[in-house]
Design brief:
Distance between the termini: 25 Å
CATH superfamily: GroES chaperonin
CATH topology: 10 Kd Chaperonin, Protein Cpn10, Chain O
CATH architecture: Roll
Number of strands: 8
Largest sheet: 6 strands, antiparallel
Oligomer: single chain
Strand content: 35-45%
Number of helices: 0
Shape: globular
Length: 96
């Protein structure tokens, strides 16, 4: 991967692919799939700059699996692979 480092409290996230089949075994065509709201954190910025100028480190770390809102973030391509850039406060939770 090329060197890409998000700034401040932003994260670079690679979406995790949705299941190809429903629970009942029905194959879901690509046109009917929704974009996944789960992803793997690839890179993180240095932290959020607070009003007093101090930097608060991020809780989310590279390698974490996260959930985020369906319509949040900005989609970009890095080395031909689709990623999402979003702020840490747009993360709904970290999956263990």
């Amino acid at each position: 991967m090329s060197k890409f480092r998000p700034l401040h409290d932003r994260l670079l996230v690679k979406r995790v692919q949705a299941e190809e089949k429903s629970k009942g075994g029905i194959i879901i065509p690509d046109s009917a799939k929704e974009k996944p709201i789960e992803g793997e954190v690839i890179a993180v910025g240095n932290g959020k700059i607070l009003d007093d100028g101090k930097v608060r480190g991020l809780e989310v770390k590279p390698g974490n699996r996260i959930l985020f809102g369906k319509y949040t973030g900005t989609e970009i391509k890095v080395d031909g692979v689709e990623h999402v850039i979003l702020r840490e406060d747009e993360v709904l939770g970290i999956l263990d």
